[in-house]
Structure formats: structure tokens, C-alpha cells
Amino acid sequence: MACLCYLRCVRKLWAPAQASQRLKVANLHRSVHQLQHKKVMAEEKPWALISEVGEQGYLEEMADIIKPHFHIISHKDFQQNPQLHGPKIQALLLWNGFPVVEPSLLGLLPSLKVVANGGVGIDHLDVPYINSLGVKVTNTPGVVSNATADIGMALLLASARKVVEGHQVAVDPKTTHIPQCLMGVEVSESTLGIIGMGHIGYKIAQRGKGFDMKILYHNRSRRSVEDEQAVGATYCENMDDLLKESDFVMLAVNLTPETTGLISHRQLSLMKPTATLVNVSRGLVVDQDALVKALQSGTIRAAALDVTYPEPLPRDHPLLGLPNVLITPHVGTNTLTTSLKMVQQMVDNAVAAVKGLTAPNEVKPK
Amino acid sequence: MAEEKPWALISEVGEQGYLEEMADIIKPHFHIISHKDFQQNPQLHGPKIQALLLWNGFPVVEPSLLGLLPSLKVVANGGVGIDHLDVPYINSLGVKVTNTPGVVSNATADIGMALLLASARKVVEGHQVAVDPKTTHIPQCLMGVEVSESTLGIIGMGHIGYKIAQRGKGFDMKILYHNRSRRSVEDEQAVGATYCENMDDLLKESDFVMLAVNLTPETTGLISHRQLSLMKPTATLVNVSRGLVVDQDALVKALQSGTIRAAALDVTYPEPLPRDHPLLGLPNVLITPHVGTNTLTTSLKMVQQMVDNAVAAVKGLTAPNEVKPK
């Protein structure tokens, strides 16, 4: 009976001082066969380490998805007594990069079974190392794609049509008349070049098609003919061709050694001087120094970035001072709808891993 | 021959009027005189002028100006909206009015979607936080609302409204629309749009309400207290029509009270708003200064269309886009 074994394991992990809890556990043995998967008694729930519940971490609605399945301990409470709390923790739920998964933390979590990441990017995790400790890594692909594709299009349109500048003029106390010279560039029927045609890149292509944009894409592998035709996308085996022909270059790759610095001086110089670079990948995909130079010199028209390196940028970084740069603070999945789906997926992954089952989204090292 | 070109009155060539590239489209067909030069000697210049090219509402077409232009054949507007023109009155002077439908639709639909997305995903606030000298860490609570798979209600399904529907479909949005007349089944199916004969139904069900009507006596104040109260408290109003389509006082109250979530406006009344207007101080309002057609691509197409209309009218031919009074 898996439940009984689990109970014994839980008892072993608990500190000796919790005698009253042990009594409850003993009582539970009598009705253990009645326990249903979704009605796990409070004491049987495994423990999960999170950053915190609150504005800087999980909103209440998000925590409410976790609580039926896990006892939650915040990183701050954990740090009060790592020796006491550490051995209980079987899952680490990672949101916006917190708590930071480093050897010093992992060393305090001898029972850890899974690092469940909220989000699809796992470049901040040393997966082979974590696996070597007998810990699985999971992420949340799929559920992030709509919101991320939406932010890519939002940035593209806001940059092209100067929405931020327009708003600033419209509300400025000194504005006396409508400016005639706030000219943007046309989005409809322009050429959108997508670098990275995975789940997110493909949804961006779909959205671009709605604007009658000509879609080019570059990817490690070519998509099927049906996929290409559905969004009117043309494969560019050579990324240089995409860079030369695009009015908007959209980065939708994941961060790997191969994509680090993918867009540097040479790539920017191939782009049209009227072109816009949009990045919803990771900051390190772009050589930021090269980008600054390209924007200052007019090598490209503008850049719109949801991601930078680091985040946030140092306050004296040249990107912050350029008029042709739009930056959002990594809000790619920042809607309640998507955040809740991500947390649900994290929980599903963590529950499976803690039970020793196959997690739906386990990240395997290459 | 240079002597045979007719004369056209414009606002001016320069940042506040026509860019050089735009003027270059006019010059092969017309001698141009700026309003400032015209005013130096209206009695001398007035009788020469056969076309008035109207851009961003300038020069202002009023009886005092028209009285100085005895040879005027056409007022050629740049843009599709002609609510600022008294067409019957102008026609009574033997002068045609033309506009530029069609060429404005892409850019206007694009700005509608740009405003919708920027408002939904808090792009302006995000940028301000990202570049603020005081920002030390990434905020976790800058939450927007989901656009994909939400419901987009389009009020006014003309050329522009239809293109907005097409763009919304790309985001897998559910499209509702209200229009004076229903579109064909093929049109509806092509963009997945559902007709709402009763505008109230559209208001109740939409996450984003997009106004794409022209301004007429029937659409003035179309969105007022009652309409706003029917909308979801999580809904966003987007206006790319004219400011007067919305009762702005009602909108201010609705935004202050949380009756609706937010508004994104490319148009207001007046433009620009007085600097003490409450709309300017609300955190859930995004305003752009009537930039709906502000791309060089579209502006050049508009000027070309204005010129084509004016050339035809001056020759006594049928202009492609003559505006007939109802």
C-alpha cells in the first residue's frame, strides 16, 4: 500500500518533537484505504519550498493551487532553520528564478525529488548537475505560448507605431497641439522574420499572418509543409537571408550555448536600417553592446525587448537612454490566466515526481 | 506645362503639415500655395485656387475661407472621416468633397490592435518601470489581462472594423460585431465573427470593446453611462473612431469607479485634451495623439488618393471618392 509506505517515510522525515502529529498519523492508518488522490489528509501532503506568497512571489490565487497538494514553506521561513525544515522538502517550486537553485541550497534538501520550474526556459538551471543529485527538473511548456506570443506582438506594434512616445506626448502637461511628426512604420503587409519557430514562434507567425505580414522563419529544423502553409511562412535555411529581408526580426529561441550571442554586430549590420529587433527569448541571445552601437548609429531603426541581461539592467546602461528602445520588465507571461495555468502545471509535475511517477514535463539533459 | 497646372491650397510643407515626400506627390499636378502665403494676399491668390487639400483638419474649411475661393472645385480630404466638414453646405457652393477610404484601413486597424495589446499587457507602465532610475528589481505584480482567446467586440464593421476582426482572429479571439447592417455569411466566416443585432449583448460579453464607427449624429455619444455599465469590470474600451463617439464624462466615471478595467484612445474630444482633463490623470488610460494613419507608407498613399480625387474634380470628371450627402 503506497499510502502506508508514504506515511512511514513521512514519519521518518519529521522531527522527533512533533509527537502530536504522530498521533494523528497513527489514526490515519485506520482509514488510509479511504483516502482518495485528491483528498489527501493535511498531514500526508509533502512539503514544497517556494519563494514566498505575496506581491514578490505567488499571488493568493496561485498559492491556492499549490496548497491542496503541498505544505508550503517560504524561503524566508526555511532559512530560519534549514536543518529542521530541509529534510522535509521533496519539491522546490521555482517561480521567476526564486528561490535560487544553487549547490548550497540543494545541499540542505536531502529529500528533494524535483525542481519544478514555472516557465519553459530552464537556462538558469544546471540540469545535469541537479539530475546527478537524483533530482528531476520540470518546466511548463505550452501554457506560456499564448501570452508570450502576445507580448511579442505587443512590443512589435508599440515600437512600430510609437505608442509609448505617443502616450507621453498626449499626457504631457506642456502639450498644446497634436504633433504631426510622430511617424511610425507600417506593420500590415511588412515582413516578419521569426528566429526560433517552436511553440511560441509559431504562434507569433499566426498572429503576424492576421496583419497580412509576410512571414520568414529560421529554425534548427524545418517545419512541415502543412505547418508552413497554415501561417504562410517561408523557411530561411540561412539566417542571413532572413535578417536582410525582414522589417521586424523576432527572437523566439531558447537560450543555449548555440544561441548565446546569436545576434551580434554582423547580424545587426545585415538588417535593414528601417528594421526593428524584438526579443522575447533571453537577454543573452543578443550581444547587448553590439545592439547599443547599432541603435546609436542607425544600423537598425529600433529594438523592443521583454528580456535583457541582467534583469533589470544597471541604471547607467546605455540601452536605458536610447530613444529608439522599448523595454518591458520580463512580463511575457504576466497575466493571471497564464500564471494560474503555469502553477497548475508546476504542481502536476511536482506531484508526479514526488510520487516517483513520470512527470509530464520532465526536462532531460541533451 | 508648368503654366497649365491648377493651383491647390494646403496648410504647409514642413513638420506641421506635409513632409517633403508627400509634397512631391502633389507638385507634378498642382502649384502649391501654403495657407500662410495665401493669407498675405487672399484677393490675389484666392481666385486661382481650384483645389483645397485638407490634411489633419488644416486649413480649416469655414465660410470665411470658402468665400475667398471663388474658383474652388473640390475640398480633397486626407483621411476617411469627414465629420469636420459640412458637406451639404460645401456642395451648395458648387464644390465637391472627397475623402480617402480604403488606404487608411490597415494602419488604423494596426493602431487599434496596438492600443488593445499595450493596454492589456501594460506596455507603457512596463517600459516606465524598466527605465526608471529608481528601479532595482523586476516587479512581480505588473499583471495584465490575457488577449489570446478573449472576446473582442467590434462596434462598426466597415473596412477598418473588418480588418480589426481579421487581426483579432490571429490571436484566436472570439469576434463579436455590431453594425448598421449585417455582413455576408462569407465575410463573417472568414474572420469567425458573430453578429450582435443588439449592441447590449456585445457589450456584456466582450473583454475588449473596439469602436470603429464613423462620427454621425447617430453615433455621437454612442458609448455613455448605460453602455459602460453593461461592460464587464474586467473589460477594456478601445477607440479609433472619433472622440465624440464616447461620452467622456461617463468614461471618466466608469474608469474611476472600476466599472470597466481600462481605456485606450487614439481619439479624444477635443484633440488634444485640456491639460487639466481628468482622463490625463487616470492610471488605467492609454492615449495616443491621433496617430492612426501616421506611417509614411500610409500617408503617401493618402496623399496620392487626395491628388487623384482633386485632379479628377478640377477637370470636371467623376472623382473616385466623392462624398455624397445622405
Automatic annotation (TrEMBL), chain A:
Molecular-function GO terms, alphabetical: glyoxylate reductase (NADPH) activity; hydroxypyruvate reductase [NAD(P)H] activity; NAD binding
Limits of the D-isomer specific 2-hydroxyacid dehydrogenase NAD-binding domain: 153-332
Domain D-isomer specific 2-hydroxyacid dehydrogenase catalytic: 76-364
GO cellular component assignments: cytosol
Name of a matching Pfam family: 2-Hacid_dh
Domain of life of the native organism: Eukaryota
PROSITE patterns to which the protein is assigned, alphabetical: D_2_HYDROXYACID_DH_1
Keywords from the UniProt entry: Oxidoreductase
Family: Belongs to the D-isomer specific 2-hydroxyacid dehydrogenase family.
This protein's name: Glyoxylate reductase/hydroxypyruvate reductase
Automatic annotation (TrEMBL), chain B:
Domain D-isomer specific 2-hydroxyacid dehydrogenase NAD-binding: 113-292
Keyword Glycoprotein tagged: no
Record's GO cellular component terms: cytosol
Presence of keyword Oxidoreductase: yes
Residues covered by the D-isomer specific 2-hydroxyacid dehydrogenase catalytic domain: 35-324
GO MF term list: glyoxylate reductase (NADPH) activity; hydroxypyruvate reductase [NAD(P)H] activity; NAD binding
Keywords attached to this entry: Oxidoreductase
Taxonomic superkingdom: Eukaryota
Assigned protein family: Belongs to the D-isomer specific 2-hydroxyacid dehydrogenase family.
Protein name: Glyoxylate reductase/hydroxypyruvate reductase
